[in-house]
Design brief:
- Four copies of one chain form a homotetramer.
- Chain A has helices spanning about 10-20, 40-45, 80-90, 105-115, 130-140, 150-165, 195, 210-220, 255-260, 310-325, and strands at about 1-5, 25-35, 70-75, 95, 125-130, 145, 170-180, 200, 230-235, 240-250, 270, 290-295, 300-310.
- Chain A is an alpha/beta fold and about 350 residues long.
- Chain A folds into two domains: about 1-125, Rossmann fold (3-Layer(aba) Sandwich); about 150-310, Dihydrodipicolinate Reductase, domain 2.
- Chain A has a seven-stranded mixed β-sheet with strand order 8-9-7-10-13-12-11.
- In chain A, helix 1 crosses helix 10, helix 5 runs parallel beside helix 10 and helix 6 (about 150-165) packs parallel to helix 8.
- The longest helix of chain A is centred in the middle third of the chain and has 16 residues, at about 150-165.
- The radius of gyration of chain A is 19 Å and the shape is globular.
- Chains B and D meet through helix 7 of B and helix 8 of D.
Chain lengths: ~350, ~350, ~350, ~350
């Protein structure tokens, strides 16, 4: 049994980790920390867990995380980097669901996240936890930087094109739409039901923190810098990200075959038949990413459609997938979930 | 392995059965019928099932349902009764998710459902599939009448009171609120997103088909006829039923203890701590019914709150629970689902 | 022109007042106060007002409210009572949209609202601003206590029965469902989109502050104390209250006629034809209350259905209606709004 | 008074026309036709209109539309073209809210709409009813082709750039998101609450009927053909369109000033301050289009954001605006509506 600790379990990625790990046959959930809610039974805060999880929040100071085999950080940005060095030193493997170790260029990270990095020397050793490009490294990783939600949806759709060098890379466009849970479980007016409901808007057009992460991933695939315009939007649903990407064709190809081959052996990437439109609900609650590729009217612009559940493949599910890989388990353990539809 | 057939798999209870059975370790899904969509892969109609179910709809005429161990009817009312006699004769056990065998009094059934019953002689032998009152009979049943969604939510909350004879039974009130999926997957204007969204209304106040079913169940528990006012409402959510019941106290009791004891051994009924308010999302996607009992201001009116997922405990999940009982499997097989929250 | 001031314009009742007053032909909006947002253009906080309102928030200390003809308080409970005496002394009429002057019994108010009343001597002179029962007094009032949202919906449906003495009054039941905007524009986790969306729950079953207000109003109509069980629920829509009331018949009557006659001359109460079910969207954005009366299966329980927009007839619209009455204007001025459907 | 007739009043654009015209001081609503619902009071189908409209649906055969001054067609595509010749001959002016007269090239129209045009000779004389480009012609028009919802949102945002010749026109991108009411009030499974709710998807990527209409309008502004990729999406809200446009800069300019000047005198186009993100709810129920222009990170791609209410500026409101222009009324008559927020 893998002894698991979770730091910060009161947000949506935390409760989603609990949902997934509660039925994981190889996991023993040892501790889940919360400074504010220490002593409170987890299932009191999240009644959905009643009967599935008999555990209370522990104060971080008495959590004994160093006795765990792996610790997940489901915390705001800037927390994991405070504790990672000590955990690694104790032989604990770390999966950070926040952004602390996602960007290899420290200066870029510090600019976009507005703080100094607490352990810049650990960044180079962190493995970006997107299994579809990094499976072998994840297997050996002590420290995994779990990708952001938008970056997962956008990269999985664009990477096959960039790896194959078939599209122009100076003017890629990613128009992404997220459900409101992507903004987290924070007491903020802008994400109230009466503000975000029956409403649609773009935000962060001037610059969103996921932009450098996506650009880094796309550059890795293209093996050179890329130009990207990324516009996130808030859409009145709870879960789900739908990303629509636009890329100009450089060389012609059998686009459907390209995607099908690239992801033929991936358990969690589903390339839909030609002409399809993935719906976010078709992945609700599951770790799947569904992708479709279109070339409207045979023109020179490709349109890629990509749908994930932001809390699963975009956060907690991908973290469990990474854990499965790290500990040599079948990758789909506890993740063979049929999406909830309707 | 239990050989399973499903008649009518294109509605919400059908796709929900598929979601649950797709991961059932003891089930072999042999056939799913649809007259209109014969030949279509199920996962084409419901992309959520891609990768989980490799089966196409079969025309009823070539379905060979008589080779199954059990057949579920996820059909409109009036279909199951046409085929049940033949299936039973072939030794196939039948679970009807519609209403054909729920009402023991044929005349009452024919009045509320507006048709003649095709096999009134089979009704007496049908077992009402509410495990919390009928577990032993379900185990032996050849024909199970799976309860309606409202009746499940209302009965589970009122039965402990009626069995104990502690409340007045002449003026019970059940004010129930359903998500829109309860109306089915039918092309009707009234349940369009733009009609049912951001809107709330009562319907069927003059009389709803679930009224006689609930009354029958309550009478069984009370061992005499009861008076019930039942008002259903449509609420702008996809899944979930919340029922609020009002009953006048006849004899005082420890209400919290009464409920906890009645359901102490029930895997799918969760009596919440005193003072709680069950939320529908706390059971989303799961087979749980969560119940709370209140006595506001110490007055003479009890308020019972009950929440289920109408497609699971209110339909497909309860049907699988019944199947598990009928075939001697652990009752929670394939139903140990952590609700999807948020 | 009526010179109008608004105290506390950053909540939902405040912005709704602005929406209504912006097109009121007899109103000159002089000042709107906000401590936190002084100096900010109102239309910057609420872009819906761009082009309709050219006004910035003023700090309360420099608001010169005493120069107004009428001041609306769209503030949390406990604010209006701090400033009312001074305003009345200056000859300013006051309409409080909060609860400070709704309850005549100070002890009851202090118990339910958990604070000492700042000016108990003013309460007796405050007029409860429900025009359908108090029109003449409102006309002369210096201080109007604008009714709560639930109390408006519940009282309008029950009052005709109580005035006529036709139902039992010891066990009235009001099962009410509110849209989320009823909880205000506050940064609280429980009303986030991802918490309140696709979810339904009861709350405050042990006791809600609107209970004594409703009880007071019903007692006034019945001319004796009444027994009431009141259960509010949160439903995933933005605006709207739907209340379902249950009352046992004492003497038979033509219920439809009773309601139609009681409200024959009311511009904002619409008694629907027999058999109807009012929808909240049928009053969205308007000051209407739509009511239907049912007697299911000819039994001894009446079911009353009542729908209002909680922010209009349940708050700001009723406040404008009261202002129109107080200043001798046609009652429907600025309120002749066709509901927004769909 | 303008005598108005409406053909096809049972859809969302029809009821929205009624909402707007019910309070129009210069309009006498003479007749509204419906083949299926002749004789039914309009307010029975749409209870929101109770008290505002005392009119029943009339069978088309007895509608005497030729006695009207203007007739609106709120019908499916292909109906208006059957009756327009006769009405024009009778001196009746016609505003078609459907697509029959929007495309000047008949062959293009017939290809995209899949039918033969009934009166191709009338197309040249039809005026495209986008007041912001065609006000003078609309004033004289006998036949107005009211623009589509997507085309309105996209054109208003791109036209200033194209008229000024400042962006590359070979690869424009319009990523548009519509509320579900845009799909009409039709009994179709795909727009049920339980299908379209809590879900997001693209549709019609291969080609949507609004593509040629938008391309025609952009070409008119650019004075040459343009290349456009247009991807519509369905978002779980009732009303609203949000369009996000991407254009590569050819010559630098003061983009904010460009837009502000272009629309300085337009009553219904609101250019937001630099850095803004228009929300669909900020125009809910109103005829406004709110636009923002961004140049992320000072790169070579402009991002335009545009929000309208698809049923108002995208349909019925624009039609009333056109009528006001045609009949010499102040353009904002009956359209000075404060958006409903929240």
């Amino acid at each position: 049994m893998i002894k698991v600790g979770i730091v910060g379990g009161t947000g949506y990625t935390g409760v989603e980790l609990l949902r997934l790990l509660a039925t994981h046959p190889q996991v023993e959930l040892k501790v889940i920390t919360s400074r504010a809610d220490a002593g409170t039974p987890v299932s009191q805060m999240f009644p959905s867990l009643r009967g599935h999880l008999d555990l209370s929040f522990t104060h971080p100071d008495s959590a004994h995380l160093d006795k765990c085999d792996v610790v997940f950080f489901a915390t705001p940005n800037g927390i994991a980097m405070q504790q990672t060095r000590e955990l690694l030193a104790a032989g604990v493997r770390v999966i950070d669901l926040a952004a602390d170790f996602r960007i290899q260029d420290v200066a870029v990270w510090e600019k976009w996240y507005g703080m100094s990095h607490a352990c810049p020397d650990l960044i180079a050793g962190a493995v970006y936890g997107l299994p579809e490009i990094n499976r072998a490294k994840i297997k050996e990783a002590q420290l995994v930087a779990n990708p952001g939600c938008y970056p997962t949806a956008v990269q999985l759709a664009l990477i096959p094109l960039l790896e194959a060098g078939l599209v122009e890379t100076s003017n890629l466009i990613a128009d992404a739409k997220s459900g409101v849970s992507g903004a987290g479980r924070k007491a903020e007016v802008g994400i109230l039901f009466s503000e975000a409901g029956d409403n649609f808007k773009a935000y962060g057009v001037a610059g969103h923190r996921h932009l450098p992460e996506i650009r880094q991933g796309l550059a890795r695939a293209a093996q050179h810098e890329v130009g990207l315009t990324f516009v996130p939007h808030l859409t009145p649903m709870i879960r789900g990200i739908h990303a629509t990407m636009y890329a100009r064709i450089k060389k012609d190809a059998d686009w459907q075959a390209l995607f099908e081959q690239r992801y033929a052996n991936e358990p969690f990437v589903d390339v839909l038949p030609a002409g399809s439109h993935p719906e976010t609900r078709s992945v609700r609650g599951s770790n799947k990413c569904r992708i479709a590729v279109h070339r409207p009217q045979g023109g020179d612009t490709l349109v890629l459609l990509s749908a994930i559940d932001n809390l699963v493949k975009g956060a907690a599910g991908q973290a469990v997938q990474n854990m499965n890989i790290m500990f040599g388990l079948p990758e789909t353990t506890a993740l063979n979930i049929v999406p909830l539809l309707p």
